[in-house]
Specification:
The chain has 453 residues and is an alpha/beta fold. The protein has 19 helices and 16 strands. The longest helix has 32 residues. Bound molecules: adenosine-5'-triphosphate and magnesium ion.
Length: 453
């Protein structure tokens, strides 16, 4: 972008307008207006990047003008110029949508330009974020779900195939791998998208409560059932019912679910009237259901009925290639949320994240980035900004400051193993990857007894 940003200056005093124009016109494409009415006319005709307005204007004040400017389809960044010392007004301005304010009495062009530049960079971050999202949307139809690893791409493909059907889906995978996110995506990509998506956390309720939560109850069905209540199945009519932590349900409910999956019928607690619901079921668990079946804690017939389509979400450490992508996205999200300009990671920070095992998977990564964004001071995330858990592990990284010899050797061995793994055992490529000559590499293979790799 070589074009100059378009700037609109609104001030009723000609000397101010001219002064600002003269000072800013070689960096900005400057327009001027002497009141709110003229300003609005210009705003509706042209696309402005920035509007700089005085608070005191004839007829309509600068705050009202900002509110109106922010309601057009591509609103400019709005900076309010206030009289020196009117802090309250400034606060009010920010509440009403101003992006920044500056005291006019001691207006310095340097500072003004710095403020404009800062606001512009912040806005660029936002638009970049939006367009990145949109790109992902149109590419996957799976908004917000990030992943370029082959494992995740395969999952997206299954999601696309299974979404249009009514097939029951069983989602497996460690905590924080994105099961709920996938469940929602399946619903959203299905013809049921406009109908309800209802979630029940099966582990959160005692068995009797869970039963009435799912199937509803009649008045007087049990002590405390003062009113008839419809259950989640009825609420999800036409849509999708997501049963989270399905591994936790007891035998009675297992039977009822089995029946629903067979006949699509059920009864409210305390009623013998048979009801039916057109509901698609998606279930998730971070337990190994097969083991629960073996231990006779989960009915095998129900397991098979649920597992019409099974999607297993891989742990994050199994797809390290997704880490930078996810990290970058969370960085954008939290930078925006916290109004920070931080937009990249140092190589060190990235390296640490790549080497960490992420037992809490994507959820843990997300929280780690939030932590880092809150703590960081500049435009980059440094290693020191990451949570101690992530910083603590330096697996595979050789540090010049490392303590004893043994640790360095161990680290080097791991580094070599990793390089071999990454290159499918291709020694020349692996050597190149860690930056040593082929001969040195061979010597090290020998030293670490890795020849058979
Ligand atoms: N591929 C992904 N792209 C973007 N965000 C993700 C991805 N996977 C997970 N997340 C985010 O990580 C967090 C955890 O995801 P989610 O709640 O879906 O995990 P889960 O598998 O249901 O975990 P649990 O078993 O603990 O309930 C959420 O904030 C979610 O938005
Ligand atoms: Mg979940």
């Amino acid at each position: 972008m070589t074009e100059k940003p378009a700037l609109l200056i609104v001030d009723d005093e000609k000397p101010t307008r001219d002064g600002l124009r003269a000072a800013l016109e070689d960096r900005y494409d400057v327009y001027v207006a002497e009141d709110a009415k003229l300003a609005m006319e210009l705003l509706e005709r042209e696309n402005f990047d920035v509007m700089l307005t005085d608070f005191r204007l004839p007829n309509e004040d600068g705050l009202k003008l900002i509110a109106r400017a922010k309601s057009i389809s591509k609103p400019p960044i709005c900076i309010l110029m206030t009289a020196y010392g009117s802090e309250e007004l400034a606060v009010d301005a920010m509440k009403r949508g101003a992006d920044d304010y500056i005291a006019k009495g001691r207006l310095q062009i340097d500072e003004l330009e710095m403020r404009i530049g800062r606001a512009l960079r912040r806005q660029n971050l936002e638009t970049e974020n939006v367009s990145l999202r949109q790109q992902l949307d149109s590419k996957f139809g799976l908004e917000n779900i990030i992943g370029e690893s082959s494992a995740m791409k395969e999952i997206f493909e299954i999601v696309r195939q299974v979404a249009p059907t009514r097939a029951t889906v069983l989602l497996g995978g460690e905590s924080g791998t994105g099961k709920e996110l996938i469940a929602k995506a399946i619903h959203q990509l299905s013809p049921r998208a406009k109908q309800p998506f209802v979630t029940v956390h099966c582990a959160a309720l005692a068995p009797t409560l869970l039963e009435s939560e799912l199937f509803g109850h009649e008045r007087g069905a049990f002590t405390g059932a003062h009113e008839r209540r419809i259950g989640r199945f009825e609420q999800a009519q036409g849509g999708t019912l997501f049963l989270d932590e399905i591994g936790e349900i007891d035998a009675t409910i297992q039977v009822k679910l089995l029946r629903f999956l067979g006949e699509r019928t059920f009864e409210r607690v305390g009623s013998n009237k048979t009801l039916t619901a057109d509901v698609r079921l998606i279930a998730a668990t971070n337990k190994n259901l097969e083991e629960l079946v073996k231990a006779e804690k989960f009915r095998e017939d129900l397991f098979f009925r649920l597992r019409v389509v099974e999607i297993l979400l891989p742990p994050l450490r199994g797809r390290p290639g997704d880490i930078p992508l996810l990290a970058q996205n969370f960085l954008r999200e939290f930078a925006h949320e916290n109004n920070k300009l931080v937009n990249e990671f140092t190589a060190d920070a990235l390296q640490l994240m790549m080497n960490y095992s992420w037992p809490g998977n994507v959820r843990e990564l997300r929280t780690a980035i939030e932590h880092a964004v809150v703590l960081c001071r500049g435009e980059k995330i440094f290693a020191r900004d990451l949570p101690p858990s992530v910083r603590g592990s330096r697996r595979g990284v050789i540090q010049s400051s490392a303590g004893n010899d043994l640790t360095i050797k161990e680290a080097e061995k791991q580094l070599i193993e990793r390089a071999l793994k990454d290159t499918n055992g291709h020694r020349t490529l692996a050597a190149k990857k860690i930056g040593v000559s082929r001969r040195t590499f061979h010597r090290k293979l020998h030293a670490y007894h890795l020849e058979g790799f």
